[in-house]
Design a protein that fits this description.
Blueprint lengths: L7 H18 L1 H13 L17 E2 L4 E3 L5 E3 L7 E7 L4 H17 L5 E7 L4 H10 L6 E5 L11 E5 L4 E7 L7 H12 L2
Parallel strand pairs: 4-5, 5-6
Antiparallel strand pairs: 1-8, 2-3, 2-6, 4-7, 7-8
């Protein structure tokens, strides 16, 4: 019996093509790969130096709808630092960063100076609430009214709004928010007058 040897240079392109096709078609695989890169130090958010409020954009008035239908306003949170993230259940980069947001939320949820707002841009709160429960994420989710200007570059978009209502941090694309540096940044923003 004469078996031909399979050469690596013949198999490698087929495997690479299979991987690229799976990556293109599978949001879970994309999310998994991005999350892996985050865990080894890639995709850190650029944390800015804090400046006087006059150098920042004032956050627009945004209303939020809770899963039980209540309406609240972002303006109601003046006097607190607001961490706000715009995401969707179909967005692989969003799914990749959600574990880092949940971990940060778990560390900060008892901090009375910081409020977490995650916004399902599709506004399908039953679907996003079920998704968060399946993943054991504990951060709150809202639907937003009038928030499109805040994530006009796309999703995921994360903002930090200071106590006076100014946007002091804006990041488009995925990032790892579960870091000592980002926690310190939130604390520094909260300490500002």
């Amino acid at each position: 019996m004469n078996l031909k040897k399979i050469k690596l240079d013949k198999v490698l392109p087929v495997l690479l093509l299979f991987f690229l096709l799976a990556y293109a078609l599978s949001p879970r695989l994309k999310s998994w790969m991005i999350r892996g890169l985050m865990s080894v130090g890639f995709f850190k958010p650029d944390i800015p130096q804090l400046k006087p409020d006059s150098q920042y954009q004032l956050a627009p008035a945004v209303q939020l709808r809770t899963p039980d239908g209540q309406l609240i306003s972002l303006e109601d949170e003046k006097g607190k630092v607001v961490f706000i993230n715009f995401w969707a259940t179909w967005c692989p980069p969003c799914l990749a960063e959600l574990p880092t947001i949940d971990a940060l939320y778990e560390k900060e949820k008892n901090n009375p100076r910081v409020v977490f707002v995650t916004v399902d841009i599709d506004g399908d709160l039953p679907k996003s609430t079920k998704f968060l429960q399946l993943k054991d994420y504990t951060f709150p989710v809202y639907a937003a009214i009038g928030a499109g200007k805040l994530y006009n570059e796309g999703i995921p978009t994360t903002l930090v709004i200071n106590k006076k209502g100014y946007i002091v941090f804006s990041h488009f694309k995925h990032a790892n928010y579960n870091s000592d540096q980002f926690e310190k940044f939130l604390d520094d923003v909260a300490k500002q007058p």
